[in-house]
Amino acid sequence: MRHEYIINQRPGRPPTHPGAIIQDDVLPALEISVTEAAKQLRISRQALHRILAEKSSVTPEMALKLAKFCGNTASFWLRLQQQWDLWHVEVELREELKEIPSHGALFHL
Question: Which residue stretches of the chain are H helix?
């Protein structure tokens, strides 16, 4: 049975980048090197290093590969990336967003 974890944000602290989870949790748990992980994921070692260094995002394609590799879901990896991206953009746009009026919920999905 697969378990998904709720991503709770702490105010003022950026969410964890998926690359940090791979670096700090996945690779040590599997006891494999970055080179071996890249080989198994069928990506270049440099591409994996860019994700681990938080310089590249987890794309939908990469999320599918990580899901297969880790035995979880692509949605998990994409949610982690989305949380990280949104937090950083919100910080960057904080002052600009204050100037945009809010018209309430015009659309309900």
Answer: 18-21, 27-30, 34-41, 45-52, 60-70, 74-98
Q: What is the pLDDT of residue 49?
A: 98
- State the pTM of this model: 0.82
- The predicted pLDDT at position 3 comes to 55
As a residue count, the chain comes to 109
Residue 35: pLDDT above 90?
Answer: yes
**Can you read off the two tokens belonging to residue 58?**
């987890």
Contact 58, 51 (CB under 8 A): yes
First to last CA, the chain: 30
Dist. CA 14–CA 23, nearest whole Å: 17
Whole-angstrom Cα Rg for the chain = 17
